[in-house]
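[audit] Reproducing an earlier prediction to check determinism. Same input, same settings, fresh worker. If the tokens differ from the archived copy the diff job will pick it up downstream; this log only records the rerun itself.
[audit] input (160 residues):
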Amino acid sequence: MTSRCFVFAMLAALASGSLAATAAGAPAMAQQPNYARTDNNPRLADIMEAARVRHLKLWFAGKAGNWDLAAYEANQIKARLEDAASLYQSLPLSDVTAMAAPIDALAAAIAAKSPAKFTAAFDHLTAGCNACHQNNERSFIAIRQPTSQPFSNQVFEGKR
């Protein structure tokens, strides 16, 4: 996947909070880029919500040392970002290089099975997402390291 695709996808996350932002006094949607649904494509906000869920699950997989699950979730994030980039080609290219380094660092940390490198790479990825949001008038969408595990029906520890 190209760096351009990652930027497209990360920028897609920007669309997911538009209605809440208007309600909170943020600029009206008419003043912000329009990433409206086209044809039968899934809504951009829905694609990015799927990526956010994978981001959360990635964290718990990595913290549990389940590197196979972490790699799977990282690949799912990558796939959601690729979906957004291919379906919403009008997304701006302003942050093309912003996500390449965090994604590469995350893949390397998972391959190394290093908890310390994983945490640093995860934080780098998260910062890249937030920077993309800020650069594209979506600073009201901010993500962070998860603080609680909402998936009580999934085992993150893996087989030992």
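[audit] rerun output stored. Observation attached for the diff report: Confidence is low (pLDDT under 50) at residues 1-31.
[audit] end
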